[in-house]
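Hi support team,

I submitted a single chain yesterday and got back a structure, but I'm not sure I'm reading the token output correctly. Could someone confirm the output below corresponds to the sequence I sent? I've pasted both exactly as they appear in my results page.

Thanks,
R.
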Amino acid sequence: MDKPYVLIDKAGKELYTYLEGAEEGELSEVCGKALQSANDNNMALDKLLLEDDAFVNVNLFGLRAIESFVKGCRFYDCKLGESTLCYSVFERCDFQGVDFTRADLDCVVFMDCIIDEDCKFAGASIDGVNLLYSSVGCRWLDGGMRTSGGYRFFLTDFGDEGLRIKAGCRNFTLEKAREHWDGDEESVLIVNTLLKRAAYLEWPSVLDIRP
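Hi R., thanks for writing in. Yes, this is the structure output for that exact sequence:
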């Protein structure tokens, strides 16, 4: 191939060194090693551009890649816990068994992606996340609505975290959410709508809950 298609803002030389001489069939493995090595060396990989790669068992714990654009990539059993990916766009990507525990995903766009039920998001910040046209296998519902206060509501049930209502910086149990928004008709309507959708999808955690 003429030129690797991985570009790293402010860290291009280091990654190009790892990618030089890579054959077409080796590129995905080399890319994964390059990213992991760069991350191990605490490089800030903001405005990362990736396209049509597969990453398998790559440890990117704590990765910083703000305002990145990733298209057509597959992430299998990768570690992205405590990563900072805010304001990034993932288009037509496939996530299977990816660990996003305590990651900063604020304002990330997952467009036409597949997010497998085995992905982990416990403790992740998802304020402003957009799941546009994405298939989400894990228990994560986007209310798709903003109140007059500008909040986007999510209902999640991520592993040990349990059932949570999230809106902006708020991350409540259902009991706390109802207490916080008591008397706020619009917010209560959104929460109840999300609960009805979860019940329709037969989430075990909501089947005995009345909106």
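A quick pointer for reading it: The first helix runs from residue 12 to 19. Let us know if anything else looks off.

Best,
Support desk
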